[in-house]
Amino acid sequence: MEKRKAAVAGSFYPRYEPDLIRILKDSFLDKKFGPGEELNSLNKEERTIIGGVSPHAGYVYSGCAAAYTYLNLFKEKIPDTVIILGTDHIGYGGVALMKEGIWETPLGDLDIDSEVSEQILKNSKVIREDNSAFMGFPYGREHNIEVQLPFIKYCSGDKKINIVPIVISNHNFDVLKTISMDIANSIKNLDKDIIIVASSDMSHEEIHSKDDLKKFKENDHKLIEGFENLDPKKTLNPYPKASICGRQTITSLILISNELNATKASKLAYYTSNEKTGNIGGYCVGYFSGIIIK
Predict the structure, then answer these.
(1) Is the pLDDT of residue 137 over 90?
(2) Which of 73, 126, 233, 263 is the most buried (most CB within 10 A)?
(3) What pLDDT is recorded for position 158?
(4) Parallel, antiparallel or unpaired: strands 282-293 and 49-54
(5) How far apart are alpha carbons 74 and 224 in whole angstroms?
(6) Are strands 110-112 and 102-103 parallel, antiparallel or unpaired?
(7) Where does the pLDDT of residue 280 fall: very low under 50, low under 70, confident under 90, or very high at 90 and above?
(8) Which of 175, 163, 238, 154 is nearest to 199 (CA)?
(9) Confidence of residue 281 (pLDDT cuts 50, 70, 90)
(10) For residue 268, with 0-12 CB atoms within 10 Å meaning exposed, 13-18 middle and 19 or more buried, which class applies?
């Protein structure tokens, strides 16, 4: 069974367990940018939250926004499986999942849920099994799915939890609609508590003034408005030449959720790297946390 190593431990997040636990805990307890509370799962019988959007930058920047997402996803109950919809920074170009294997984290390994992945492959003519999308050079260096894993492992506590990593490079709406229906039908066919995480940062632009930052945030809020309205076409193309790296993952999350009878989407948090560091100027990235509810 193949094991996907933690490729960006020591850069996007700490390599060693005590340091990683510390920054995760601080992300949850941060009262300015984070939720200001530690996770305490209520272990409810029923789940109302289908999934959410979580950023994937370095934890010092985006960890607080990610903490909002995982606090809400895991507070009702700890799921059996997390489907992670990943974007593509390296140029893989396809739509693929890893059917079986192990992903390493400094907090312990996470197994791929082969039952869920096999069901998706059975239902889909578009999503293919391709370990090369996640392993080896260069795709093994892709960080956006990996960055979600320490949050998942940390929030699951002592419960055994599995993942299904899916990379989505395609931005064609009809293709996204097809694969989203395939994933939704797979979830319906399985007696498991499954949640979906769309891994995406928001806009990436050079900022030189407060006016630039204002325009930057206005552009991001065009996607957020589409998310809150469960409008997948608006999230896929929120503004001309959008520099939002995971538009297709957020769009797929909405399309899947609509198939699973979503009724509401809520923004939990939004801020920029400039605001997080307190420096207005230079390269700026937006971070958004939101959830979709039945």
Answers:
(1) no
(2) 73
(3) 92
(4) antiparallel
(5) 22
(6) antiparallel
(7) confident
(8) 163
(9) confident
(10) middle
| 252-278 pLDDT, tens digit each | 999 999 999 999 999 999 999 999 999
What is the model's pLDDT at position 1?
A: 83
Domain 3-293 has CATH 3.40.830.10: yes
Please tell me the predicted confidence (pLDDT) of residue 153. Answer: 98
Q: Domain extents for the chain?
A: 3-293
Chain CA centroid to CA 157, Å: 19
Average pLDDT over residues 219-228: 98
**Geometric angle at alpha carbon 59, from 54 and 65, rounded to 5°:** 40
CA atoms within 13 A on the CB side of 282: 8
Q: How confident is the model at residue 185 (pLDDT cuts 50, 70, 90)?
A: very high
Positive or negative: CA dihedral 142, 145, 68, 218: positive
Give the span between the Cα atoms of 115 and 100, in whole angstroms: 9
Q: pLDDT, tens digit, for every residue of 154-167? A: 999 999 999 999 99
